[in-house]
Amino acid sequence: MTVVPGLGAPRLASPDLLRSVFRRHAAGVAVITARGESGPVGFTATSLTSVSAEPPMLSFGVGTGASSWPAISVTEHVGVHLLGEHQEDLAATFARSGADRFGPATAWREGPEGVPLLDGVPAWMVCRVVTRVPAGDHRIVLAEVVLGDPSGPGRPLVYHQGRFNGLRD
Q1: Could you please report the per-residue DSSP string of 10-52?
Q2: What's the rounded Cα separation, in Å, for the pair 101 and 161?
Q3: Whole-number Å distance between alpha carbons of 117 and 127
Q4: Hey, is 53 helix, strand or coil?
Q5: Are 29 and 60 in contact (CB under 8 A)?
Q6: Is the dihedral of CA 47, 17, 63, 90 positive or negative?
Q7: What is the pLDDT of residues 120-166, one digit of tens each?
Q8: Number of domains into which the chain is organized
Q9: What range defines the domain where residue 51 resides?
Q10: What is the pTM (predicted TM-score) of this model?
Q11: What are phi and psi of 99, to 5 degrees?
């Protein structure tokens, strides 16, 4: 292995290396929702990416072992919600395994195409799933934006160093 001066000691690729590097990468926090066979499903995602303006498309990653994957693997539409810094608890709820994500503490309603829409988010979109691309133990979901609303309250929530944070001025 070549040592590059000023860059530290390189490590071989591993899941731990990838996690360690991406802890240093600040990312916006989103919640992805869908209608499942036995009710609404959802999960917290930091992998949301704008893909195309024409047509308007986005992508996100979801683990094939995630409790939401069975619904995401077959649904035609998803809800994408950008969370605000006032929604750290909501982000934690949707990130926690076994949590009652759509319980009394979560304000939501059924939106277009039956997609669960979360209340009080800075922005949301309903998207039509175009394809699911295999990527290791995840799938990359490409989805076309059908409609949305960017006018909700709050500044963005970000995830960095394993914690949810707000932006500093």
Answers
A1: -----HHHHHHHHHTS-EE-EEEEEEETTEEEEEEES--EEEE
A2: 24
A3: 12
A4: strand
A5: no
A6: negative
A7: 999 999 999 999 999 999 999 999 999 999 999 999 999 999 999 99
A8: 1
A9: 28-151
A10: 0.92
A11: -70, 150
In the numeric block, the tokens 């969370």 are attached to 83
CA–CA distance, 50 with 57 (Å, rounded to integer):
6
Tokens of 6: 């000023």
Q: What is the DSSP letter of 95?
A: H
Nearest to 62 by CA among 145, 143, 164, 140: 140
Does residue 114 lie in a domain region?
yes
Burial class (CB in 10 A: 0-12, 13-18, 19+), 27: middle
Please report, for residues 44, 46, 56, 81, the alpha-carbon distance to residue 123 in angstroms, rounded to integers and kept in the order given.
15, 15, 15, 6
CATH of the domain at 86: 2.30.110.10
Is residue 164, in this structure, part of any structural domain at all? no
Interatomic CA distance for residues 91 and 89, integer angstroms = 5
